[in-house]
Amino acid sequence: MKKRNRMIIILLSLCMILGGCTKTAKEDEKPTSVVVGFSQLGAESSWRIANTKSMEAAAKEYGFGLMMENANQKQGKQIDAIRSFIAYQVDVIVFSPIVENGWDNVLKEAKRAGIPVILMDRMIETTEENLYTAYIGADFYAEGQRAGEYLKRKADALGADHMNIAEISGTIDSTPMRDRQRGFMDAICGDERFTVIDSICGDFLRSMGEECMRELLKKHGRDGIDVIYSHNDSMTLGALTVLEKEGIQSGKDIILITVDGEKEAVSQLKAGKINCVVQCTPNLGGDVMQLVERMKNGEAIQGVFHPEEGLFTDFDDLTDPAVEGF
Ligand code: GYE
Fold it and tell me: 68 alpha carbon to ligand 1 midpoint, in Å?
């Protein structure tokens, strides 16, 4: 694409030899027209792993070079990765910010270097303008609202006059945590049947979901909780193992509402152990690379792109083959 291409290919080969990249030696034989630097935030959930695979597959499909760094849940590592992409002069930087704040300096550096940035999956909070070109990811507020609307429908169907809700939240200050919480609270707000009795953070991790569930039962007792609203499937599946061990019938004694839609969660919905799965697709790679392609063709890209999403619940016909996880 540019004069520095040869340099980038040499660096990519070096990077591959050192084991940090996802490209194969064969692919390096033909020069790639575009190099994308991708900072993934971690590998905390099945969602994240599927998301990484989707980015790798899409880069391959488009014939783009992908320099990927995984930050293992550390913001500092993401900042380092972005700096290294700037040093390599990649064509586009894509990253999934673990939390919303603290990116201004490194993004100003990218801007000064003339490298466009696409936010994938999560948003940032900034007062600076034009620090990123586009955002591709879910509308987490709408996801939270769907979860709340489901609960209202469920309470109607059960004729419940009061329900105690405990929330297991994702990583504090991350976009899905903030917006799934806000959307849910707004949807149930003013409905006197509901009391949110607790909210604890499980960091989107399955092991933490287990820990949170144990803590919630210890604090509130099995009769003190009617609903668990969990911000992702990994934490929900962790919580489920605790409920099973305690002989608590999830799906009946405690209503379980979860977000993501991975295979295991959908099969637990079909088994009656989870009541509602709000979908959030990890397959964003195709949309990201399509945007990169358009940028490469000189289009000025700007804006927010949300994939279409819905939900599966115990009100649906769960034998329908469309009820499927990723
Ligand atoms: O819901 C969760 C993951 O940011 C949408 O992060 C993503 C969330 C997803 O760890 O499973």
Answer: 18
Residue 160 has pLDDT above 70, yes or no: yes
176/267 Cα distance (integer angstroms): 23
- Give 153-204 as a DSSP string: HHHHHHT-S-EEEEEEE-STT-HHHHHHHHHHHHHHTT-TTEEEEEEEE-TT
β partners of residue 255 = 227
pLDDT tens profile 291-304:
999 999 999 888 89
Q: Given this model, what pLDDT does residue 8 score?
A: 44
Instruction: Output the CA 113–ligand 1 centroid distance in Å.
Output: 30
At 50 the pLDDT is 98
Does residue 44's CB lie within 6 angstroms of at least one atom of ligand 1? yes
Of ligand 1's listed atoms, the one at least distance from the Cα of 46 is 11
Full set of structural domains in the chain with CATH: 6-137+282-308 (3.40.50.2300), 140-280 (3.40.50.2300)
* Ligand 1 and 123: CB distance under 6 A: no
Task: Write down the pTM of the prediction.
Answer: 0.90
Please tell me whether residue 126 adopts helix, strand or coil conformation.
coil
